[in-house]
Batch of 4 targets.
Target 1
Amino acid sequence: MAIKPDYIRPLDLRHGRIDMNHGAGGRASLQLIEEVFAAAFDNDFLRQGDDAARLPPPPPGHGLVMATDGHVISPLFFPGGDIGALAVHGTVNDVAMLGATPLYLSASFILEEGLPLADLVRIVRSMAEASRAAGVPVVTGDTKVVEQGKGDGVFIATTGIGALPPGRRIGGAQARPGDVVLVSGTLGDHGVAVLSLRESLAFETTIESDSAALHGLVAALLASVPEGAVRTLRDPTRGGLASTLNEIARQSRAGITLDEAALPIRAQVEAACELLGLDPLYMANEGKLVAVVAPEAADAALAALRAHPLGAQSARIGTVGVDAQHFVQMRTRFGGRRMVDWLSGEPLPRIC
Amino acid sequence: MAIKPDYIRPLDLRHGRIDMNHGAGGRASLQLIEEVFAAAFDNDFLRQGDDAARLPPPPPGHGLVMATDGHVISPLFFPGGDIGALAVHGTVNDVAMLGATPLYLSASFILEEGLPLADLVRIVRSMAEASRAAGVPVVTGDTKVVEQGKGDGVFIATTGIGALPPGRRIGGAQARPGDVVLVSGTLGDHGVAVLSLRESLAFETTIESDSAALHGLVAALLASVPEGAVRTLRDPTRGGLASTLNEIARQSRAGITLDEAALPIRAQVEAACELLGLDPLYMANEGKLVAVVAPEAADAALAALRAHPLGAQSARIGTVGVDAQHFVQMRTRFGGRRMVDWLSGEPLPRIC
């Protein structure tokens, strides 16, 4: 158990694979951490080398925000992204949706025995690149290994901490009758990009995932209108726009009416969904936000979103109303009305 | 996809099982969150109901500490604990080992399709109880579901945030030659308790896991000696005492010499390890800490540890010395010396 090898060879990052030793907490774990994780994420916080990171607190007067997300997407690589970048974007976005500035990320990796190191390196580098691009460092982490057949390549749980400016109260419960509902771009791109790779559904598309960090877009939006005019921000991930709006309606004890003709949906996404018998309103997005804003601020907010590269196709898609049952409804293109319920029935598993 | 059921029955927490719908982000996900997670963890932060939690910041002048840990222990239930309590203790302890006060936890659950809801409820309740006992609430969370055979019951990644008092510098790099090494109790209890249940190793023992939150013990220790006298605190989990001391020696660029006769090890643990050809120095602990303290503070520190219920069997087990190669060595009971290397060779998988 305690034989000291004379010489430790570097990991074979091209042809090597994860084995149970990499999760045992000994020399092999240390080597994996140093040659794969620390090499990619390198920053002063990680370099402290303890089991926790010491971090500067948020600026005086600011509150803390904390969000966590497990990522189990299958396949690990998809058009427009991979699980590594997604794990950064998903958690940065959850922090940003309260109007907070994301500061730090932690990452917990659960690896399956047999995972090619080349895949892990590709994922970790992509994650590090997304973290650098977002300006939110991965400051601490953990790695576990499970036996082949007890996991599925890589799962990544990321947690984010952010700083909340004093007096900011953005949340799902803040929408009020009369408010306007905006969305920052086309719906369903991520869901269709991932589904296009699933064995049972394989079809051809050039649609890419919209996976992106939205804190810059949120900052631009908030700078464009008075404090308090943005009531709710939320990223419509699993369950899509329909589930997100139902959550907001429920939290705010209001109704929401959508305008079908105003929904930005790519023709290719619409076609793919029709082919598969799916509805773009329930398809996951990973780089879009829903904003509920005060009516008098709606024009300025929409203009600010459209002026940002991640919001060029933003649209005004609905309004908040009074509804004791908190229903989400849609005015259809043909002048009718239909319910837009929570996702129920067949799920689209492991879309994030 | 959007059919509104007339009536949602409550989850069958006795006979029900996790299915893919529980991870899809729609109504079934919401029901699982409300009837299992929110019901158990209930607190003002979780009740905010957004994808992130708004939290009071650490007290003025304090720094932040962040730690994360994935938990993949098998089996999920073991003598003295379960994966739920362990997930709280492991992360609380990582925060506490920097001398910080743990404030908040997040939890990411990765569930395998088919998991009995009764098992999940038992785990979540145990986790909630551990969280309440520690005074560290679970303020936000996430749940994903993977197909049967792509996970293993439950994995839980917890992240902790703590407040670090100004001027506190406890860490793996702070040990200095002359310092004294203390341990807060018997070694290897957790590892032996878990191994006793493994199919291939089944043997009888009454040993229970030592799984416990150590922040109270740390507070008692720190109150007993001047600031700066405690150099390093670390919980010897995966890889056991041997790996932890090698980490400290490496980070502090020093050597460590252990005194075998001083190591507190239960006779049952010693016997079980002998039977299995294992060494208690490499067995995981989940409720013990190693403290490296200034020599002049060692007696007071040991007395403070022993006065606490979680440190009654604390012992002085070694000293820090000068060693350019950062070796950990042991004076054996028979007057010899042997190297205590990093864990290498056969690992003990999924011990935490």
Note: Residues 20-164 of chain A form a domain with the 60s Ribosomal Protein L30; Chain: A; fold (CATH 3.30.1330.10).
Target 2
Amino acid sequence: MKVGIVGATGYGGLELIRFLHNHPAVDRIELFTSSEEGVLFSSKFGHLVTIVDTPLKKIAYDALEKFDVVFTSTPSGVTSELLPPLVGKGPKLIDLSGDFRLKDLASYEAWYGKKAAPANSVQQSVYGLTEWNTERIRQATLIANPGCYPTAVLLSLLPLIKERLIDPSFLVIDAKSGISGAGNKPSQTTHFSEANENLSIYKVNTHQHIPEIEQALSMFAHVDTTITFNTHLIPMTRGILATSYASVMPGITEAQLIACLKTAYEKHPFLRIVTDANSLGTNRVKGSNYCDILVNVDARTNRATIVSVIDNLVKGAAGQAIQNMNVQFDLPQTTGLDVVPFFI
Amino acid sequence: MKVGIVGATGYGGLELIRFLHNHPAVDRIELFTSSEEGVLFSSKFGHLVTIVDTPLKKIAYDALEKFDVVFTSTPSGVTSELLPPLVGKGPKLIDLSGDFRLKDLASYEAWYGKKAAPANSVQQSVYGLTEWNTERIRQATLIANPGCYPTAVLLSLLPLIKERLIDPSFLVIDAKSGISGAGNKPSQTTHFSEANENLSIYKVNTHQHIPEIEQALSMFAHVDTTITFNTHLIPMTRGILATSYASVMPGITEAQLIACLKTAYEKHPFLRIVTDANSLGTNRVKGSNYCDILVNVDARTNRATIVSVIDNLVKGAAGQAIQNMNVQFDLPQTTGLDVVPFFI
Amino acid sequence: MKVGIVGATGYGGLELIRFLHNHPAVDRIELFTSSEEGVLFSSKFGHLVTIVDTPLKKIAYDALEKFDVVFTSTPSGVTSELLPPLVGKGPKLIDLSGDFRLKDLASYEAWYGKKAAPANSVQQSVYGLTEWNTERIRQATLIANPGCYPTAVLLSLLPLIKERLIDPSFLVIDAKSGISGAGNKPSQTTHFSEANENLSIYKVNTHQHIPEIEQALSMFAHVDTTITFNTHLIPMTRGILATSYASVMPGITEAQLIACLKTAYEKHPFLRIVTDANSLGTNRVKGSNYCDILVNVDARTNRATIVSVIDNLVKGAAGQAIQNMNVQFDLPQTTGLDVVPFFI
Amino acid sequence: MKVGIVGATGYGGLELIRFLHNHPAVDRIELFTSSEEGVLFSSKFGHLVTIVDTPLKKIAYDALEKFDVVFTSTPSGVTSELLPPLVGKGPKLIDLSGDFRLKDLASYEAWYGKKAAPANSVQQSVYGLTEWNTERIRQATLIANPGCYPTAVLLSLLPLIKERLIDPSFLVIDAKSGISGAGNKPSQTTHFSEANENLSIYKVNTHQHIPEIEQALSMFAHVDTTITFNTHLIPMTRGILATSYASVMPGITEAQLIACLKTAYEKHPFLRIVTDANSLGTNRVKGSNYCDILVNVDARTNRATIVSVIDNLVKGAAGQAIQNMNVQFDLPQTTGLDVVPFFI
């Protein structure tokens, strides 16, 4: 397979390279950029010296059409214009940006503050939450790879909500992310001396992943609800931990919640149900495509606490994108992704 | 004033020393320990060389009785035995442990798993949430200094709940703390290589600060409720950020919530109401006794997000203890505590 | 005293504010900027809300002339033009930039790549290494506050070189700094995700502090030598540790080196000679004006290892600047600087 | 191949597992322990759930003899007793501890403060600095895998010293390591709150890697010298950066030093010569077996600064051990180790 990556210099692009380098079905990777044509990739990224000593290429449709897969890992508002002409021209398209995730174009424009992609492209696109949309992904030409937060949240909540074990009417999701989620562009907020040893909340009640989560709850669990969702910046590089709170439906036990999750994911190699909180942490999934989930019911309140952890750059971005590519090409989902988490 | 510190080698004790060193009304500090009698304090703590070159002393009642104030900063289960004989013997007693916080002895024993202090001592003790209990603190002989999490949570929620602006019946509090909250004793969980670059949840729905928060909501806001409260370990040393979620009462606006907080704290120098989330972060209060609070109402859900930040070792421990001492001795509350936060 | 700070928004400026806020002889502080006139300072820096709620003022000579002291904490190349007209006009001038440190103008221009300040201003300026230049500082109108690295290096090496106990002819200085030394301007190098968990060397053999150290060795120890000096970026915010290596002069013992340092600094409250390496670390001086020094002689090689630690923003910048102000105004050197280091 | 790991619960052991899991020639891994027989490995290490769900086994010679390779990753003083009876009994033995590194038994006992291994075992053992001892490693039964610091130092210095391009008579090596180098056992020094935001020096002039480096300089470059070597603790988890200083031999240029290194390593896939300091950093080799080297000559002093970076747990431990295994079994050296460094 020949693979093109547009937006290779971002962290999503770098993670795609990290995994595709060891993917047995990929024999060629080319990197595209909007602004640094001809620059030797390894001159920008020292860790890739002797590994990716190829120049960045200019984005051009005739070049992109010749790949088997094109990954786009660009800021929002780029692929809404770039990808529509490529749909159906040959390559599988896997977009890591948010441009094709929201089916409601007005919602996209309200939450992203940008012009939406053309309606027909958005309708053609398939939401790439691998474990929940496998068959449609297999057939898809254009995949909207899920956001990092929605991946962590949905994988943990969907089974419980779909089976009506928890009450979706008062759902509070408190999410926390490492700073790599903010991308590679320097800013005051991500300046080491100000981000280090600091804990903050951002985009209070206005994060663009809210409508994405609500849409997926409707799509996969057939529940329309309005969630409370907030995001915090954690002084570490990688990792998302999402803590969700909801009332347990009458008569439902913690054991049933755990059983529901185990059943839902028994055939899914990257999903692990954890029963001991001491075994759960972002470093237990760091660098890998795993999503670990813990559920606990507080007998005092009959409310459930549901916790999930992922590596935001892997299962929350590049890893899930490659998992989707594997599905599209009828490869085992773990191909090229079967690595041991870092831990330390 | 002569001040004794029992448990000086813990982080709470070290912070007491840091502030009392510059407290204009304190002219003598002596340090007590259960196990390292005679050890030169600065030989254990290099940062105190030339500053605190005195030996640790053995805990003895006749010595402790001679102080104007005795701070105890010990693990739970120590002062329940140590302090009762000292009550009324002269010194003001300010206990930073949890041993005198819960009026319900059975609750203490259930949540702490230890024998409670004698009933009469517990009844005599005054809960030292300075801004909410000033008059009783002024008269108190034995102060139960609040826990770090309860301080952050209560200061932000009490005005809103007392004025019935938010609904206390479904209160979700998602708290996050730096690792110094776990104390100075090494463990696998706090081992640098495993705590660094990791984000985890601990004591899921079982943290001993739950009954303390519920008791204070009842005591100061006259509301009996059962809260959902969880705690997360953040890879940084200092700081607590608590994010609380509740429905806003019908007809109440965000502006009213903000006004309520501003009114409640207008005469309290350490409480700051923040209206821009970009100005809120644990590093904005680091090293200081400030508590910063932000409130936001999500118009989609009519739920409030209430965020507060403190330095867990200062406002959440040593700083509030000294603030209470100031109250007891009719000093301005800011005496010895008027420092600029670190930020970086 | 009335104090003006030019360049208040940088980290040096923020530290000046942190200490001057508690300085008993300072009753007014005004903040100046080149570009953000009228902006409320606390709107930029949330930690200063209720503490410094004053607007930034435009830099103007008539305003600056009325202060007792003007601190300038600006990038190199600014005060070389700004300060000369102010010399002798009233205020004591304390420049935290490098513009007046090098007496050799050609050397300044070679190492800084900028135009040097006028020769007469440079000659008038006094190098503000407090412990080594106290009398001249007392009389000075314009003080060139030392660089962060030179402060750490010179305080540890000067006594030993001046007394000819170590051989200055082959002096290797390996210095390490926290990232706040790079200032507050975001860049790829200081972007959290790329600076965190990374250790690197920078400005290899070309750091502009090299001629400053060599000049001071000549000035205070009367030794002309060419040093080897390198700097490393450490993934933490504050702190410098400098490790220096030199041969011990024949017949000289470790005990003599220690004694030399102790004698040199016995009357200097901020200098501490440490004899146990376990007591030495940047966190032992964090947030304070202390400089801790350790010396060890390796009997195998007869070479000395000399280690010093400072907080780069305090003793390496704002703290030493205030110490110099204290000297100029005949205040005890510790005035406003007598704080306990943070440790944790 | 069947592989046994003794000391699997340490960080070296965990890294062996991380890489061997993806090693194409390894089909079975068993884990041995001195004290936790029967414990499910993944119950101790959450990141290995579903990956290594096997129990720890008791160390027993009859079991160990049946493996093709036995890695031992234990504290010093363990394998000196454990391994000698296994030599020649079948498995290739690769010892990651220091017990077989020093040929001079008295030196081992002096620097390690422990009883040395039997003389004949030590003599039989082969020092496993892969790039410099490949042929002897290929034949070896017992490999003494190099220390983390010696690996970083020797790979960068050996070519230059062997070719007599730098002067070994005054060699200063200033090394810095992340905290994982201290192992997995909690201590005050590695307690997060005290290690975070701290920079310190340890084992001043007494690190046990000193004689190992000197022995290898003699063994591979035929130079007997006494080095100055110090080690610093950096607040990050992984990575070593070693900065070495030496005079350049008369008439030798920087270009010759660079050429020497490039020639020495042109056929060695894990060695990369870096010419831009901005491309060098521990995060450029993080998680990988690469060693990156930079050399710079200061024209002012005619001294060379030689910098090398490795991941202490990979090239400095488990990675090099597997590289040695590959050599022993005539596999390409990169087998199972061909991964892209993490960078972020």
Note: DSSP finds twelve helices and 14 strands in chain B.
Target 3
Amino acid sequence: MLDYRLLAALAAVVETGRFDLAARQLLITQSAVSQRIKQLEERLGQVLLIRDNPPRPTPAGRRLLTHFRQVRLLENELPASLLAEDTEATTSLPIGINADSLATWFWKAVRPLLDEHELLFDLRVADQDVTERLLRQGEVVGCISATSKPPQGCRAGYLGTMVYRLCAAPSFHQRWFPTGLTLSAAARAPVAIYNRQDALHRRLLERSCGRAPRRWQAHYIPSQEAYNTLIVDGYAYGCIPEQQCRPLLDNGALVDLAPHAPEPVRLYWHSWNLRSSLLRELEQTLQRGAKILLLQEEHPEG
Amino acid sequence: MLDYRLLAALAAVVETGRFDLAARQLLITQSAVSQRIKQLEERLGQVLLIRDNPPRPTPAGRRLLTHFRQVRLLENELPASLLAEDTEATTSLPIGINADSLATWFWKAVRPLLDEHELLFDLRVADQDVTERLLRQGEVVGCISATSKPPQGCRAGYLGTMVYRLCAAPSFHQRWFPTGLTLSAAARAPVAIYNRQDALHRRLLERSCGRAPRRWQAHYIPSQEAYNTLIVDGYAYGCIPEQQCRPLLDNGALVDLAPHAPEPVRLYWHSWNLRSSLLRELEQTLQRGAKILLLQEEHPEG
């Protein structure tokens, strides 16, 4: 059987990114942390950790850590009486999530879970198209993803659909889109894009204009707040979730550039296929919340 | 002399993260993109690009790209008459910035620059302690950093100080800190931390309590909005910038757990040491804005 004390040292180094912080977390010395990882590597005959800054697991190390996190999650559900004293740390749930979900509906949906359980969220923000990689690599126990098919060993369920609208301030609309949304106007006008993985506006324009422009005049603004401000202040156009743009469209602070072509992003909850009651409860809580907070389509793709 | 057409292909692949998007941006075929990079590598006798997903530059490739970006920035300042037609793309300024600056003062400070110039912001969000690495690696032309000493080839100037306060909702304060801020209470109470690079709360507690707890009960919430909500809703305590917590402290929605030990973070603007008038103007605009929006200390460290 694996020596989980050694695995815990590996996990602490990877999770804190530093040997001294790992030592502090485990209440042992820094050299004991190094020794434990070395010992584990010698027993398994494989390098598990790349001693870089920050240290990173090798593929073998990553596979072990996935396993370790699963064990830790299951262990946290044992009755308290079965646990040794030093395992009483609160369960921490590593979850992959897209920035828009976190800024709009996620917190409202999961809040009830925090009222019921002592647990901690460990959120990793990434684009909805890439959160799944975190799950596949075992860095998170569940993720919000835009694909309906879960990776091997995981299960998936439809949560709901976020609807994005292509918005601009009225002054921006007049200056850059005097004859409405055309391909050439979309190429010339400054557009706000969250980051380089963000392909929403491209997809929306492909549907509205037949194809997307080859070049963009793009501001890259990886902050939900600053992104929306740039658009509301009239310096760019861009895709804003319905939940955030609706009141601004209704009071005339924003104009919908493509009212007949909102872009739907279907969100799915993917998680490890474990018999963990906490994971199951998280899933149910998210689904209950999403039913109220997201658009529910009858036949989502996939 | 270097063939900048080949360098542009390398830059496009690294910046878009994909060969097909690079091809689209350069208006050439995907195989022409590959050939150009290959040709550049053959001429220089070095591998410049790691063909991974996404493709990444080697150290040599990174060095070349830094140079390419500097040339591009300077070229954009030539009079329009001197430029060939296909170089007329709007100047894009890659800047490294910490999430809190972006969420609070940065946009208000730089707005005047957008009123004067046609330019685009390409913002990379990272912790204030690590944005400088982006500058050193040449991925940004300037960055907001917490260190006063610029890397080689760069200049630095003090912008101002962001002040953080350790806040909690009144109900949370009553439940977890009934006898005030003590080390053991700080270790037991759930704390909101932006991400694993974020050391603000640790530094603040080291100053208030003599040392920081060895273990945390930490929620990791890498979204400014969700982070603040978690604290305001009474599920965690954590560090909030003065600009955001002041109104909530004043109206009683939050309590300051360490009123006599706010944590100052001194911010500096670092940029390449180039004779670029645009870079100089950005610096001046930021400094003017920071004078109003940030605390100005007379003798900042360093």
Note: The two ends of chain A are 41 Å apart (CA to CA).
Target 4
Amino acid sequence: MTIRIGLLGYGTVGKGVIEIIHSHQERIQALLGEPVEVTGVLVQHLKKKREIPSSILVTSDFDRLLLQDIDIVLEAIVGEEPSFTYCKKAIEQGKHVVTANKEMYAIHGKELKELASKHSVSVGYESTTVAGTPVIRTLQQLLQVNQVEKVEGILNGTSNFILTKMRQDGTSFEQSLKEAQQKGYAEADPTNDIKGYDAFYKLMNISELLYGKQPNWDDVYVEGIDRVDPTQILEASFMDKKIKHVATIEWKDGDVRASIQPISLTEHHPLYSIDGVQNGVVIHTDLAGPLTLSGPGAGASSTASGMIEDFITIFQQSYNNVHQFQ
Amino acid sequence: MTIRIGLLGYGTVGKGVIEIIHSHQERIQALLGEPVEVTGVLVQHLKKKREIPSSILVTSDFDRLLLQDIDIVLEAIVGEEPSFTYCKKAIEQGKHVVTANKEMYAIHGKELKELASKHSVSVGYESTTVAGTPVIRTLQQLLQVNQVEKVEGILNGTSNFILTKMRQDGTSFEQSLKEAQQKGYAEADPTNDIKGYDAFYKLMNISELLYGKQPNWDDVYVEGIDRVDPTQILEASFMDKKIKHVATIEWKDGDVRASIQPISLTEHHPLYSIDGVQNGVVIHTDLAGPLTLSGPGAGASSTASGMIEDFITIFQQSYNNVHQFQ
């Protein structure tokens, strides 16, 4: 039987999802034992011209998409709503959900997880945090006995690009931001990136996963990179240091502590060498030691990749439960 | 019902395994739904004084260990034999196996995997490669749709320590090796490390996993670090480069190509910043981009940690197959 996907959003990530499912069809089928198809795509404006095969339903009506007998929803839209309403409805109707929406998931992740458990479906959210670089699934699947004592991360590519640029070329914050926008890394409104909110949402998703809870949002110190000036960067350079925008989460004195701020790192810090749009995390574990994982933290292909890997994991579980020990 | 472990070897890693099972008993039980105990330990010399609880059988007779009704064998001895014979026998009697033995697994891994499949048991081998840093399980579980085009790795901590020392302190190869031995990183006979054989075995295990085959061993160019002299390192430093011992494996022209040799890297290479006894790999994927994973590549706690995480994964599969969707 074909596995049927309903895709929410047809921006760069949504397009990436369809491309991968097309280009990797054979591999996916080998992994799951069944063919996979995108049955319908939810878009905001129906009239916009798009190159979508005519076999795929294109609709702006979520309920119509759900009627297509889909097995799973891949959600690639931004912002809290209507994303949350859609995901909730999908789960209530017994569909699995994979989301790349960091803001929505930071706010409603716990609720969605609980709902999914009630309806015997799964929620994948790898791409909410560091795109397709498998930070979430490393914490979730690969470190189970290990206690994670602390996670430090460079979680926003735009901020890291700007800080790298300022250091390497001596340009101002404004000039560097402009270049980030020209290269398509930063949005027209870059507030979420440069004020640290984007990194904040990602950190909250890590917190939920690690500790089953988030700190009180008001108690988290969040400082963006918009007040970092070239002099500070130069001073750090003189001491062989780099200023990096670091998000930290740890369990301390019986509670979760989190902060996000520019700090200067020596070359011995594992995040020191993560430059440009790259993202990375250091996972401090009690047994395996500190593990560093880095890779692209954004981009259509990487984000879509994380969503497809989530999708595979979800269906492989069901598949393996039938074809045990093969 | 209690899950019963037979442990092979009581060196630093074997001790580490017992320690973790003791210290993390509650967590392990929460993960698997059952208590876990080390039922017996196989040692080479029975007369040696050891602090092992009297409830655990200590024997030098493998068959006697197998008679203890164990569910899984954790193998922490070195060298091809008798490790292979033990693992084979265990699998044939329906026991799962987790091994940390890179040499044995590079030679017999494929055979053991096939045998395990026939007997409906699993083989875990995370700790054969970069100890508890989850390189194997990242490739195995987290990158399924992604095609891995190439893996580059610093796979031997002793070599990396020596090269780092030579660059930082300007010491000779011999002096640096001596220091590695004093610190307990290098064996009394350091041949396997400095000639590249240790990295070679690890690379072969990665090859088997990625491509289901290994290159012809004679076709792999293997050069150790024993001919690197301080002048080369100094010259590299002048050009802001570092000489690193890099193992590379890729699929090219219809076959697997592998090499292991000292090469000089610029600061833009993700392995450039991996210094000292740290190990790391760059996984070049077609969708998620290049991912870098680094951490301790040796050490009792890290190696034992990788074995226990393997152990958890194996039993969790069975557990989840019973308690689906919880």
Note: The two ends of chain B are 20 Å apart (CA to CA).
